[in-house]
Task: structure prediction
Amino acid sequence: MKFYKKGEVKMTLSIGLNLFSVFRELNEDYFGTLEKVAEMGYQNIELISSNFSTGERFADTFTLPVIKKKLDELGLNAFAAHEGVAPGKSLIEGNWDKIIEENAALGCQSIVFPMAFISGSEDTLQTAEHLNVIGNKCKESGLDFYYHNHAHEFKRIGESSLFDLLVENTDPGLVKFELDLVWVMRGGYNPISVLEKLGNRCDMIHQKDLGQHVDPVNIFGALNGEDNEDTMKLYREIVKPTDFVNLGTGIVNFEETYNKLNNMGIVRYAIVENEGQQGNKFTSIASDLKIMENYV
Result:
């Protein structure tokens, strides 16, 4: 944290890694993957809760004390965790009491809901209501609660967007936003402008990079004006596994972005999320860390 004249306080940016970047590796060797992440120099990690192959929570596989001991041994600060709900369940049906208790035991300060499959005003308003309920549960336990965006939330509704509805209808004291900068771009918005509007409601961001070959960047531009109610169609038919690339090799202007972020002084964590599916993921996230260290 930095202090400026007239009592102004600006946050110091720290680099983090969202472990979704190596979810396949975690599925195969959970502790070995954590060891490699620590060895390459990451100190702050954002947890994912489950083995994506089996659906089993890692806390059920290894127990919380064992995981916490390993994190401490490796010097890994698990500052946040991404927590979703089982397929077919609504947001409010998640076992949030258990989720909150487990992540608090691991030392997490924040819980992030990674994605809601909203497509119109009605389900967006209901989602906002549910986010407030879960945010209140987190607050009562001393944790912050965040919503993490993808691109579909930036679907236009008149002069507004679904994302705007979420922001306007969630309680700033209960729900924050973890802004994924590249997904904002893919939704057709300027991520810095969105971040400026969110202000102190967004102090964590996700950083990925988008390949120079991707056209159009705005996924809604590929719909040719179609009013699409199928949220997942955007990700099944338009977003490709090869769209995302290692940091510094795509279209993101890191120098400009991080000059602005550092001047704004509201973001605490810039979190690497490498969704690319080319090459060795450990090599990729090690390269990503070196890129981030040039700007953070």
Observations:
- Confidence is low (pLDDT under 50) at residues 1-7.
- The radius of gyration is 18 Å.
- The CA atoms of residues 126 and 145 lie 17 Å apart.
